[in-house]
Structures are given as structure tokens and as C-alpha cells.
Design a protein that fits this description.
Elements lengths: L2 H15 L8 H14 L5 H7 L5 H10 L12 H18 L4 E6 L6 H12 L8 E8 L2 H9 L1 E3 H5 L4 H7 E4 L2 E4 L1 H5 L1 E5 L12 E6 L8 H13 L1 E9 L12 E3 L5 E4 L12
Parallel strand pairs: 1-2, 1-7, 2-6, 7-8
Antiparallel strand pairs: 3-5, 4-5, 8-10, 9-10
């Protein structure tokens, strides 16, 4: 694959997903796209690059899917889930008690570990939101990742990454070398495919948004546009949780940092978050 062919793939991936690929990712592009090229009748990745603009939609979707990063694990980085339990959930329940409804969106859900982690915390704190309807919507660009998330089936390695043993015992059953999440937890999460570069109208408006470890793959204008779209999908007093390497720097100023690193609220928010006492 020559430099022009590599750039053709990079530009396609940027336009279809927002992901920016550097020249250092050339080996990754080759290794991930070679099986797709051969599967769809292309001689190699170079031929795929040259024919991508006029390729069938199925090929374009497969290329975009292959270049997404699906690295995730249960309770990843711990702090975002501690914030959920100690600040976000009690504050939002108090604010939404009269309405009786709370909506949470995991905007880059990958294979499901993040939304299922939140669902397990909701189950643990069920008394706090008793009588309310709490909905978790989980989306991702990758169709294959969403399919795995819906299945709720994880390897021994995957459940060992961040998942406390008491939650494994409480919410999973073992089948051979895999662990299957309980139907109760699975029913708490609604999964669907969604491209963050496109309209969010189909999923509605949310009180809490987790958009972690995805903005780092975008260039400045794309990041700013996505944050603006996320803001339009949020209530004025809601919470936005970003990844450790994500910031709102360079955005259009819709968010301000709340009481902890990685936790943000719309500039319109007027209530100060109150942590639940231990």
C-alpha cells in the first residue's frame, strides 16, 4: 500500500467515523483490512483502497467497523463509576423524583462492559431510585461490538478485568469457558448502533451521558461538533462523564467542569452536586 492509497483509507475513515489515523497506524490498517479485502474480492488492501469510493455499502461499513477501537473492560478506570454512585445518581434521583424518570446514555459502549457496569450499580442502589423508571441506552458505531454487547457473553479474561468477584457471582452464570450476564441486568440496557457524527434524534434526551475514551480519536473540529451534539441531547442540569484523556478544551463552551476530574455539566446547570454521605 503506497502513501496515496493509505491516505485514501484515512480520509474515508475520518469522514465515516471521525477517527483520525496517523502514518504510524499503517500496519494496523493493513492487518485489519486485509481479511475484509479478501472476503469482498479485492486482491489486497491496496486494491481495496483504490476501489473503496465506489464499493458496495457493505464493504464501506465493514471497513469502518474494522478501524474502530473496542478496548474496554468492566468498571474501567474506577473513578467514573465511583462518581456515578456517590454524586451523579443521588443528585439526579433527587432532581428527577417528581418526574419519575431518569435516562442514561453510554455513547461509546463498545462490547457492553460500561453500560452493564452502570446497570450493576443501579441494581446495588435500587432503594435509592425505587419507584422511578431508569433507562440505560448504549450505542456504538461498531455493529459487531453492539452484537457482542447484546449477547452479554464474556471470556474469563474479560470478566477478570475490573469486575469484582462478588458482582461476577451475583450477576453472571458460567457456560464452559464463558460467562453470561443475567437477564435481569441485560434487560436494563437498550443497545443500538449509532454514529456520533450523525443525528441523535432517534435516541432522545438524557440526564447523564458517558462519552469516554472516544474524543481522543477525533480532530479538533470533529470533537467540537460531537460535544455540541451531545449537549443538545442533554438536559440543562445533567452530567457528562468523559475519559481520563478527554477534555472539553477546544469545544464551543457548552460544558463546565463539575466537582471532579472528568465530570462536566452544561453551563446552564445551576445546582451544585451533593455527594451522598457514606
Amino acid at each position: 500500500m503506497n502513501s496515496q492509497e493509505f491516505e485514501q483509507i484515512c480520509e474515508f475513515v475520518r469522514q465515516s467515523s471521525g477517527i483520525v489515523l496517523s502514518r504510524a497506524k499503517e500496519y494496523l490498517v493493513e492487518s485489519r483490512l486485509k481479511p475484509i479485502a479478501l472476503q469482498h474480492g479485492f486482491a489486497d488492501v491496496s486494491a481495496l483502497a483504490r476501489g473503496l469510493a465506489h464499493a458496495p455499502q457493505a464493504v464501506k461499513l465493514a471497513v469502518t467497523d474494522a478501524m474502530t477501537t473496542n478496548e474496554t473492560f468492566f468498571f474501567r478506570d474506577k473513578t467514573p463509576f465511583k462518581l456515578f454512585e456517590e454524586i451523579i445518581l443521588p443528585d439526579m434521583v433527587a432532581a428527577r423524583r417528581a418526574q419519575g424518570r431518569l435516562r442514561i446514555w453510554c455513547a461509546a459502549a463498545s462490547t457492553g462492559q460500561e453500560p452493564y457496569s452502570i446497570a450493576m450499580l443501579l441494581k446495588k442502589n435500587a432503594r435509592l431510585w425505587a419507584g422511578m423508571n431508569v433507562e440505560i441506552v448504549a450505542t456504538d458505531l461498531s455493529a459487531s461490538a453492539i452484537a457482542r454487547a447484546k449477547e452479554g457473553k464474556y471470556t474469563q479474561f474479560e470478566v477478570q478485568r475490573g469486575l469484582p468477584v462478588e458482582l461476577l457471582v451475583a450477576h453472571f452464570r458460567q457456560e464452559g469457558t464463558h460467562w453470561i450476564i443475567s437477564d435481569e441486568i441485560k434487560r436494563m440496557v437498550k443497545f443500538s448502533q449509532l454514529n456520533l457524527l450523525e443525528s441523535y434524534a432517534s435516541i432522545g434526551v438524557f440526564d447523564v451521558v458517558y462519552c469516554r475514551n472516544v474524543l481522543i480519536y477525533f480532530d479538533g473540529p470533529t470533537k467540537s461538533a460531537v460535544l455540541s451534539s451531545v449537549r443538545r441531547a442533554m438536559r440543562d442540569d445533567g452530567y457528562l462523564v468523559l475519559g481520563a484523556a478527554d477534555t472539553v478544551i477546544g469545544s464551543a463552551g457548552e460544558f463546565v467542569r463539575a466537582s471532579a476530574r472528568g465530570l462536566y455539566q452544561p453551563v446552564e446547570a445551576k445546582r451544585a452536586p451533593v455527594a451522598r454521605s457514606a
